[in-house]
């Protein structure tokens, strides 16, 4: 990259050149004066030498002339003539030397006058320049004072203007902040409404899913009930033969069913209040129904079409329905007890009181889900199997089917 050319003010450049030339002029004048003085000295010296030679030649000529008076020989005459010529020539040299001295002195004098005049001019110029500089400085000070006052006035006006602009900007910023706040509030409200709408949609979706699950559960319960009824019907048809063949097995079944019943009573006694009382009553009623069924067993063996057995079965079914209503009523009064009772059916289900070994030999089609949800209704005797199966079929599979939850 080429070096940037420095911009020079032409006036300043000329002034600098003048200053240099003046310095050179002073040096040249001083040298010329020195040379003139040297020339004067040399001319004076040459004049002295010429005069000395002239006096020597004059003395020699005088001696030759004196000798020529006594001796009038040709040689003496020649020396006198030659000496006269030399003296004349030397006089001319002396005259030239004197003229050279005078000229040199004139030159020195002229140079001195010129130098004196130049010094006077330079002094006057310096004085004038100083006066001009002083006037210019005074004028510049006045202009600076004037410019300072103008700048102060302008700065004051600019400060007032800037203050007004700051106030205006502050108002604009406040307005913009208010607009942003309003916009943010609107966005928040919109987001809240959208969230509410989404929550409502989710709730609706969950309700639909719950309804669908409830319907599916109800359908499954109906299918289980139907299956249990079919199994009960099948067990009822198979009960008379099994009762005639194995009366000892009935007693063992009753004894084995009594132990789970007692444990079921203990498990049902843990939940609070009405549920425990209802469960106790239900167990008592079911025991009565089982006894009645056991008493009616010989009559069934004698005659399967006897109306007493049908009445006992219908009575047991009615008692199971009443028990279900009482449990539902107690659950509605005390939801905490319902939740605790619903949370602890596992131990009773683990004991499997619904499927004792003798009944397994008879193979009554008692469904497992119904037995798990109705632990207090084990089949004591083969004759009571149809009533127990009907009661288990009529029992609810889940509390959610009736809208308790």
UniProtKB/TrEMBL annotation:
<feature type="compositionally biased region" description="Basic residues">
    <location>
        <begin position="243"/>
        <end position="254"/>
    </location>
</feature>
<feature type="compositionally biased region" description="Low complexity">
    <location>
        <begin position="269"/>
        <end position="281"/>
    </location>
</feature>
<feature type="compositionally biased region" description="Basic residues">
    <location>
        <begin position="326"/>
        <end position="337"/>
    </location>
</feature>
<feature type="compositionally biased region" description="Low complexity">
    <location>
        <begin position="185"/>
        <end position="198"/>
    </location>
</feature>
<protein>
    <recommendedName>
        <fullName>Histone</fullName>
    </recommendedName>
</protein>
<feature type="compositionally biased region" description="Basic residues">
    <location>
        <begin position="282"/>
        <end position="293"/>
    </location>
</feature>
<feature type="compositionally biased region" description="Basic residues">
    <location>
        <begin position="224"/>
        <end position="236"/>
    </location>
</feature>
<feature type="compositionally biased region" description="Low complexity">
    <location>
        <begin position="314"/>
        <end position="324"/>
    </location>
</feature>
<feature type="compositionally biased region" description="Low complexity">
    <location>
        <begin position="294"/>
        <end position="306"/>
    </location>
</feature>
<feature type="region of interest" description="Disordered">
    <location>
        <begin position="184"/>
        <end position="390"/>
    </location>
</feature>
<feature type="compositionally biased region" description="Low complexity">
    <location>
        <begin position="338"/>
        <end position="390"/>
    </location>
</feature>
């Amino acid at each position: 990259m080429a070096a940037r050319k420095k911009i020079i003010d032409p006036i300043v450049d000329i002034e600098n050149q003048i200053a240099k030339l003046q310095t050179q002029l002073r040096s040249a004048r001083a040298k010329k004066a020195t040379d003139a003085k040297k020339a004067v000295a040399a001319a004076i010296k040459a004049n002295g030498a010429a005069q000395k030679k002239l006096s020597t030649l004059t003395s020699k000529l005088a001696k030759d002339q004196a000798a020529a008076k006594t001796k009038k020989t040709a040689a003496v005459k020649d020396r006198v003539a030659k000496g006269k010529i030399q003296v004349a020539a030397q006089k001319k040299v002396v005259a030239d030397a004197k003229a050279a001295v005078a000229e040199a002195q004139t030159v020195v004098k002229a140079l001195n006058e010129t130098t004196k005049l130049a010094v006077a001019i330079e002094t006057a110029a310096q004085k004038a320049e100083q006066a001009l500089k002083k006037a210019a400085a005074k004028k510049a000070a006045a202009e600076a004072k004037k410019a300072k006052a103008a700048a102060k006035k302008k700065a004051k006006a600019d400060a007032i203007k800037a203050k007004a602009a700051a106030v205006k900007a502050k108002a604009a910023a406040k307005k913009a902040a208010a607009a942003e706040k309003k916009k943010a509030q609107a966005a928040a409200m919109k987001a809240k409404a959208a969230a509410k709408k989404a929550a409502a949609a989710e709730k609706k979706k969950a309700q639909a899913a719950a309804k669908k699950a409830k319907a599916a559960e109800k359908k499954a319960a109906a299918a289980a009930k139907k299956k249990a009824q079919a199994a009960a019907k099948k067990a009822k048809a198979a009960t008379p033969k099994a009762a005639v063949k194995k009366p000892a097995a009935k007693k063992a079944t009753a004894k084995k069913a009594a132990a789970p019943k007692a444990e079921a009573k203990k498990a049902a006694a843990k939940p609070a209040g009405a549920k425990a009382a209802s469960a106790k009553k239900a167990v008592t009623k079911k025991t009565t129904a089982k006894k009645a069924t056991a008493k009616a067993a010989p009559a069934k063996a004698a005659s399967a079409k006897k109306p007493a057995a049908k009445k006992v079965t219908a009575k047991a079914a009615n008692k199971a329905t009443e028990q279900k209503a009482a449990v539902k009523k107690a659950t509605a009064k005390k939801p905490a007890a319902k939740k605790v009772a619903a949370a602890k059916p596992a131990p009773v289900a683990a004991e499997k009181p619904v499927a004792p070994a003798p009944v397994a030999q008879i193979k009554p089609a008692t469904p497992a889900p119904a037995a798990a949800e109705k632990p207090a209704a084990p089949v004591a005797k083969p004759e009571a199997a149809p009533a127990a199966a009907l009661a288990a079929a009529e029992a609810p599979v889940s509390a959610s089917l009736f809208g308790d939850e």
